[in-house]
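Subject: complex prediction, re-run

Hi both,

The earlier run crashed halfway through, so I resubmitted it with identical inputs.
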Amino acid sequence: MSAIHLQGLVKRFGQFTALKTMDLAIADGEFMALLGPSGCGKSTTMNMIAGMERPSEGRILFGNQDVTGLPMGRRGVGFVFQNYAIFTHMTVRQNLSYGLRMMGRPASEVASRTGTMAEMLGLTALLDRPAAGLSVNILQRLAIGRSAVMEPAIFLLDEPLSNVDAAFRAVMRTELKSLQRQFRQTMVYVTHDQLEAMTMADRIAVMDHGVLQQVGTPLEVYNDPVNTFVARFIGAPGMNLLPGRLLQHAGGLCVDLGPLGISAPLPGPLAAAAASAPAEVIYGFRPEEVQLDPAAPLGLPLTVTERIGARSILHLGEGETSVRAVFQSGEPLPEAGLVRFQPAAAAVRLFDAATGRAIRGV
Amino acid sequence: MTSAPTPEKDDGAGLGLRLTLPAQVLVLFISLFPLLMQLYISLTDWSPLSGMAWPRAWEFWNTFANYLDLVSDDRLWSALGRTALVMAVCVPLEFGLGLALATLFVDDFPGKRVAYSILIMPMMVVPAVAGYMFFMLFQSGGPVNDILSWFTAEPVSIAWLSDPTLALIAVMAADIWQWTPLMFLILLAGLVGVPDDQIKAATLLGASPVQRFLTIVIPRMKTIIVIALAIRCIEAFKIFDTLYIMTGGGPGVATETISVYIYKITTQDLIWGYVAAIALAILLVLSLLAVWAMRRMAK
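This time it finished cleanly. Structure:
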């Protein structure tokens, strides 16, 4: 019913192509995050789902209904704007009840539904306050409530947490997720913050330069990035990516990483997949998967140690051949000099150096 | 040593007063002096024809006789009523037309810049010239009658400016032509200032175009609307130049507004004591009206 299908969606603004052929199926009741850096086309995609922009090509389906040409007022989607677009000339109550009043619902129904929503969002005490001059955190909840009170089957959120302070953002992440579980709506959530996407979404659609890069659950996207962009973009810090050459060494297929040394032999499935790949590869592994070992094959000089509370980040080497490694703060860490390390065998990922695509073991 | 001023004692109101005193004296002289002079003359029967300078107007002292006279001055009252009528007709029409045009100009359309320039041109015309233009247009052999004759299929020769009712209509038409652009300009600025995402938010919540206009656009433009109406009401009350050139207040006194009436008794009848009384009375009434209107707006 409220599943969303984007079929061959293209959006051009004059000469500029903001979105190049997007195909995406969002299931009924799914929380889908559109994640990417600014200018990647995620907001354009969202605006087309809402009906604010017309696609240059392609179709948008809600369930089985083609809504491509349907004006935005008739799509019945809830939309939370990045800057909330609260009607500041009205009170909180007038904002919450706006949609219901415009639809001409009976006054008693408007009052009860508005009251319930206010109760749920903790806005009851503020109902008769003018919306102007409320704090950002409250405006944010009001913006969600104003759309949620209409009980839309599809809820679109455009970077709703980018303006609120860090502490409240954490609270809102949990709150939004529980709201969505409660209403069972299909939610599309645009963000450039991978932490938001990872914590809330059922699936993440990673976008870059108007192209959909990968769709998958947060763990799939984290563990098996399809290309170097996704590998670098997901995770904080992102995956370590080092240019290298495949070669036979020490009884297995290894990667020659130039100044770092030669890696340990690749695990079986990955080696099998790499056997048919071009020799020029990119060797990737998560900073969390680094093991320190004086006998390890790889080594780089320590540049900086960042200590951030529970974690410490070692920066090794610089430029093209730099590696970041994340450790729990309790672990003994080297203070200076050459650091020898290796990634956990299962954590190694290979990418084709020419195309950036992942080389995957089956 | 002891006479040197200490800055600590001087930096308060004392220094400020000394610095602004010349300007304050000047302002007082410009605003207060004419008011007092007018008040003085309004209490006398003095006229420049008496051969005496105005400081000696006390020789014609008649206390409140002028003020009593104006209460029963029918010509004054009908001029006031006519001025009110011009305001009541022109300002709402200018507002309606201006708002409608401004709404059209929010979105882009081909030729918008040219249309925009043409539309605001009347505002730039010197009012006296506009008066002369409309004087020519409304001649009985003029273009207005020509155009009307296209519809009636027979020659039309309405004597617009010689008919008491039609002359007033012609004058109002000129005023609407000239000042709708000002409304348009102010209201367009207001419309453009309504945030786009608020409109989108309202649309997504299911509001129809009319509902959006009434619940988002108009409330957001309230201040601008009040300013536009206030400017035009004040200006319409003072209507003079266009009208004076078109009809001279005539035929008879049929298009005499308050400004034209005061102008005529000042330059033709030269009863300056009475003129001063009228001017002061109007100033008083308008000030009270303005205070009342501002109090209402503040609510």
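Chain B has a mean pLDDT of 87.

- K.
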